[in-house]
Write a structure and sequence with these properties.
Elements: E1 3-6, E2 13-18, H1 25-28, E3 35-40, E4 53-58, H2 68-80, E5 88-93, H3 95-107, E6 113-118, H4 121-127, E7 132-137, E8 140-147, E9 152-156, H5 165-178, H6 198-214, H7 229-238, H8 245-262, H9 268-280, H10 293-302, E10 311-314, E11 321-324, H11 328-336
Parallel strand pairs: 2-9, 3-4, 3-5, 5-6, 6-9
Antiparallel strand pairs: 1-2, 7-8, 10-11
Helix pairs in contact: 2-3, 4-5, 4-6, 5-8, 7-8, 7-10, 8-9, 8-11
Bound molecules: glycine (GLY).
């Protein structure tokens, strides 16, 4: 089974990828731990066996569950159950669970070890790896958090077979992103796990691991992981459109390709390659009906990752990189191509 190292000196860890790797969990629990808090959701159809006394803490579904009060609730349950600094949190779920479970682990007794068992495709290729943990405030997403690396990550590709179709497609948006950040094999047609297999997941994980190892605290290189995300975040902020996060990222990737072409950074053929990858995963390239260009352009300016004027992560002769100060007319013209 593929094992990918996230090389962070004393905070380094391994990501285990493949069918059935959830069975490794017991071996990954540190030997001095006495109890495990499994943070998960009712809707997650997987039980894990950490091989130790287990306290299961069920958290609500949905991004709105990621709150400070939920973290307090998790920490209080661990306190009542007698958890010490030597014990371990295991987050079993998608990005909401790994974000909130990881943040609870970061702050409980000033930091306990945690392991992510990523059950969604999006979490396996992205959310469960990298150490960014946190919750939302009413004023915005992920405004409170900590860099707190897991001690191991488990990406059991058998778990992907039970995902609802839209959830799976959302993960494919992030998989598509990695095709432009590094080398990802095209998925074999008819693979039993759907459009991706363990080779595709591990290629994505390897790219994420390399980026995180180069820039753990998001000082620079990590920005490339936001490929496609500026427009995606603007769509998500603009209103309630029928797009899951990864689907919005797909539209954002198509958009970034058009902006890069208009700036002369990439050829028409490279734009077509973007469209081919997105099409191979049945991902959308068009803006939702009724979205106003002025509203999106305004939201670009307010993006929290904006440095000088609008910043977009764009493909180009040196690969994918952040580009600042883009001509607003180019941004507007590229929106007009997303049909
Ligand atoms: N937890 C996701 C990341 O660190 O990128």
């Amino acid at each position: 089974m593929p094992v990918i190292d996230v090389e962070l000196r004393d905070r380094g860890y391994q990501v285990h990828v493949g069918p059935g790797v959830r069975e490794l969990l017991g071996e990954l629990i540190p030997t001095d731990a006495k109890r495990v808090a499994v943070v998960t959701q009712e809707s997650i159809p997987w039980n894990v066996d950490p091989g130790l006394a287990q306290l299961t803490i069920t958290v609500p579904d949905g991004e709105s569950a990621k709150s400070m009060s939920l973290v307090e609730d998790i920490c209080r349950k661990m306190t009542v159950a007698g958890f010490t600094r030597a014990d371990v949190v295991v987050a079993v779920g998608g990005g909401v669970v790994t974000d909130v479970g990881g943040f609870a682990a970061a702050v409980y007794h000033r930091g306990v070890r945690f392991i992510n068992v990523a059950t969604t495709l999006l979490a396996q290729v992205d959310a469960a790896i990298g150490g960014k943990t946190g919750v939302n405030l009413l004023e915005g997403k992920n405004l409170v958090g900590a860099f707190w690396q897991p001690t191991a990550v488990v990406c059991d590709t058998e778990m992907l077979a039970t995902l609802p179709v839209r959830e799976y497609r959302s993960g494919l948006g992030e998989v598509a992103k990695y095709h432009f950040l590094g080398s990802v094999p095209d998925a074999p047609a008819g693979s039993p796990e759907g459009k991706v297999n363990a080779d595709v997941v591990s290629a994505c994980v390897q790219i994420k691991a390399d980026v995180v190892a180069a820039d753990e605290r998001e000082g620079g290189r990590r920005a490339i992981l936001n490929y496609g995300h500026t427009l995606a975040h603007a769509i998500e902020t603009a209103g309630e459109y029928d797009l899951r996060h990864g689907e919005a990222v797909a539209v954002g990737i198509a958009y970034a390709a058009e902006v890069a072409r208009l700036l002369g950074r990439i050829s028409e053929a490279r734009v077509m390659e973007h469209r081919r990858v997105l099409g191979a995963y049945d991902l959308p390239c068009a803006l939702p009906e009724g979205l106003d260009a002025d509203r999106l352009l305004d939201l670009f300016k307010r993006d929290k990752k904006a440095i000088e004027g609008v910043t977009l992560v764009l493909d180009g002769p040196n690969g994918v990189e952040p580009v600042t100060g883009i001509d607003p007319q180019v941004l507007r013209d590229a929106l007009g191509t997303l049909r």
